[in-house]
Specification:
single chain, 173 residues, alpha+beta, NADH Oxidase, four-stranded antiparallel sheet, 4 strands, 38% helix, 14% strand, globular, binds flavin mononucleotide
């Protein structure tokens, strides 16, 4: 799949996955795409926990309030921001932006390799779910799980959302 096909094909997937694990080799390629992302002042603040162990997957899926998007993953990528990071440029720090750049690279890599997944953030922010997941996966003090990406081989059709036309969102000067 070429790059522009990948960006066009990427879409959030909240359906069922085939009952096949994601090989570690593919998970490494996917998370490497996250490591390759740009970061403010090249501080590379985002860290990752990749879960492909069935027992831990089971515990993640048993967290209260799990919805369809969350509970079917054949692997999970947890993206951690560094909450202790000091300002790195003119009083600003960029850990959220660093994390977002990494997540998008990861989603593109997932698409390029024929898997599907979804960027889950809102779900983590309520009912202390980020903290509960952090306890389960041994997240150290000062780090916080900001995004979780369940992934696998999609068993249902992908539904690409209609995007607004270029003319509506882009101006050339
Ligand atoms: C910052 C951010 C937070 C998101 N949080 C969630 C979430 O908590 N749960 C979810 O199902 N999707 C979440 N999404 C996915 C969006 O709903 C999705 O990207 C959007 O509907 C557009 O669809 P598409 O990804 O298929 O283009 C999030 C996306 C972003 C960028």
């Amino acid at each position: 799949m070429d790059f522009f096909e990948t960006t066009r094909n990427r879409c959030s997937y909240r359906g069922l996955f085939k009952d096949e694990l994601v090989p570690r080799e593919d998970l490494k390629k996917i998370v490497q795409a996250g490591l390759d992302a740009p970061s403010g002042c090249n501080r590379q603040t985002t860290e990752f926990i990749v879960v492909d162990n069935r027992e831990i997957i089971g515990k993640i899926q048993a967290l209260p309030g799990g919805n369809k998007a969350m509970t079917g993953g054949k692997a999970y990528i947890l993206c951690l921001v560094d909450e202790t990071q000091d300002a790195v440029y003119e009083g600003f720090s960029f850990q959220i932006e660093d994390c977002a750049a990494a997540v998008e690279n990861i989603l593109l890599a997932i698409t390029a390799l024929g898997y599907a997944g979804v960027w889950i953030d809102g779900w983590l922010r309520t009912h202390n779910r980020a903290e509960k997941l952090g306890e389960l996966t041994g997240v150290p003090r000062g780090k916080k799980i900001r995004v979780i990406i369940p992934l696998g081989i999609p068993a249902e059709p992908l539904e690409r959302k209609e995007k607004k036309p270029l003319e509506e969102r882009v101006r050339f000067l």
